[in-house]
Design a protein that fits this description.
heterodimer, A: about 290 residues, mainly alpha, MetI-like fold, 13 helices, B: alpha/beta, Rossmann fold, 2 domains, six-stranded mixed sheet, 12 strands, about 35% helix, ATP binding (chain B), ABC-type amino acid transporter activity (chain B)
């Protein structure tokens, strides 16, 4: 830069500042806030380290067979209940938007009833169904004792799946409404039937809107399956409880269960990202973020 | 001259509540003919088009396509509504090109074209793709085969939409203001494709404001207003020497 300052033509170097060093602004407030939060976290960590937690129990039970069995049952229940929820959700949403007044009234009534009662209560209703219907079947054809069918697994699956269907149907309906009416018309003009149009043109586009909330619901369902412990379904929380009833290490085993819930939810969040990317194909906003 | 009438509309009437969108419209379109429908907005042009392929249900009147009654089956003196599957079958023979293209956004250009042939007409994928590529070449978009609609300009999207309609090998293609949503510099590329299609002998019914296209390409022109056909005839006659004062006024207003 000496050449510039030596030049007599540059008497005024007020505007020659492009070469000067930039000193970033100091964020004093941010530093103070971060320090306070870190201090609080350190305190929490210390509390846990000096608290009466036997970390060896956490370590020993993390991969205990009973816990891993419970984890598998949790995943099976999540998949079963969510499958019922999504199938019911799609069917109820299509009934709701169909022109048939009986079907759409039934759909509205379904959402009203099953979204209106707590999931835990619904689970218990199914589990105790034998109290009012000792046997089930078609009169004259066959008959089965209700208690033989209504195992904890079936009761939890029905209770969770059917109440989930009420929520999912609203997600599906909003997805269907998000598809432009021109898409329905274009599908009709190439001769598609109603079902083919829904399956090939409308639902794939609705999925883009539906996947984020349904991913949310799957993650919610992983944790909601813990309700099934109340009716003796041996999912992970139920098995952890059985162990701590025996060895009284309550918090240690609850930590073990939390670890697995967190692990499953983390894996699902990653999966959701990829599903969203798949259904976002052809859409500008998604591609821009890829 | 005996003409082979492909589309015949008789006394087609359509109401939206108290509003009469179509009032006893009669129309004949011969096989291979290009027929333009012009008129101010709200005159019922688009509604007539949408009645032909049953996107709208008419209240009175009837439409025949290749001598097949659309939407109904006659039994003696009764007209029975046909099933949804039957309606879908009737629609396959009638292509449609929309003002807003309505391409399937989750499918590439070539997937848009083969969707109907493969999943409605059950054509083998390989054959359908070969035909689709030939169609894309015809509309000048071979290199865009694997692009999604969002990656194409309006004119390119409309050309893909025309190729999609042609992919079904229909008897007739209905055009509902195909250039009205386009930027002005993109209009001609779409009109060129339509000219080429007309020259190949495709029967076309075109609702349009492009009077130049009507003059150069159409065989017949129909002027509609307030749901009625005001005047219909040979393109040169209706556009150059209209009989009705209202038609003349409209043509002058569009040109100025």
């Amino acid at each position: 830069m000496t050449a510039a300052t030596d030049s007599p033509a540059r008497a005024d170097d007020k505007y020659e500042i492009a070469h000067l060093k930039l000193v970033p602004k100091r964020h004093i407030g941010r530093m103070v806030a971060a320090a306070i939060v870190l201090l609080l976290l350190a305190g929490l960590a210390r509390a846990f380290s000096v608290g009466q937690i036997e970390w060896s129990y956490v370590r020993d039970f993390l991969f205990a067979p009973a816990i891993l069995d419970g984890l598998v049952n949790t995943l099976v229940m999540t998949a079963a209940a969510m499958s019922i929820g999504i199938v019911l959700g799609v069917v109820i949403a299509i009934m709701r938007i169909s022109g048939n007044p009986v079907l759409s009234s039934i759909a509205i009534g379904y959402v009203w009833v099953f979204r209106g009662a707590p999931a835990l209560l619904q689970l218990m209703l199914w589990f105790n169904l034998a109290l009012i219907f000792p046997t089930m079947g078609i009169p004259g054809l066959f008959e089965i004792r209700t208690v033989d069918i209504m195992t904890p697994f079936v009761a939890a699956m029905l209770g969770l799946g059917i109440s989930q269907g009420a929520y999912t149907s609203e997600v599906v309906r909003s997805g269907l409404l998000s598809v432009d009416s021109g898409q329905y018309e274009a599908a009709r003009t190439i001769g598609m039937t109603q079902m083919k149009m829904l399956r090939r043109i409308v639902l794939p586009q609705a999925m883009r809107v539906m996947v984020p909330p349904i991913g949310n619901e799957v993650i919610g369902m992983v944790k909601l399956t813990s309700l099934a412990s109340v009716i003796q379904y041996s999912e992970i929380l139920h098995n952890a409880q059985i162990i701590y009833f025996a060895n009284t290490r309550v918090l240690e085993l609850l930590l073990v269960a939390s670890f697995w819930y967190l692990a499953v939810v983390s894996v699902l969040s990653v999966g959701q990202h990829y599903i969203e990317r798949y259904f976002g194909r052809g859409s500008k906003s998604i591609r821009a973020s890829m | 001259m005996i003409k082979d009438i492909l589309i015949k509309a008789v006394d087609v009437t359509k109401n939206y509540g108290d509003f009469r969108a179509l009032d006893k419209v009669n129309m004949d379109v011969a096989r291979g003919e290009v027929s333009c429908i012009i008129g101010p907005s709200g005159s019922g042009k688009s509604t007539l088009l949408r009645c032909i392929n049953l996107l709208e249900r008419m209240d009175k009147g009837a439409i025949w396509v290749d001598d097949e009654l659309m939407g109904y089956r006659r039994e003696g003196n009764d007209l029975h509504e046909i099933s949804d599957a039957e309606i879908s079958r009737q629609r396959r023979r009638i292509g449609m090109v929309f003002q807003r293209f309505n391409l399937f956004p989750h499918k590439t250009a070539i997937e848009n074209i083969i969707e109907g042939p493969v999943h409605v007409l059950s054509e083998p994928v390989k054959e359908a793709r070969e035909r689709a590529l030939a169609l894309l070449e015809r509309v000048g978009l071979t290199e865009k085969a694997n692009h999604y609609p969002s990656e194409l300009s309006g004119g390119q999207q409309q050309r893909v939409a025309i190729a999609r309609a042609m992919g079904m090998q229909p008897d007739v293609i209905l055009f509902d203001e195909p250039t009205s949503a386009l930027d002005p510099e993109l209009v001609s590329e779409v009109l060129d494709v339509m000219k080429d299609l007309a020259a190949s002998g495709m029967t076309m019914i075109v609702v349009t404001h492009e009077l130049g296209f009507a003059r150069n390409v159409a065989n017949t022109v129909t002027f509609m207003e307030t749901g009625k056909v005001v005047e219909t005839g040979l393109a040169s006659e209706v556009l150059s020497a209209p009989k009705s004062a209202r038609t003349e006024e409209f043509i002058r207003a569009v040109h100025s």
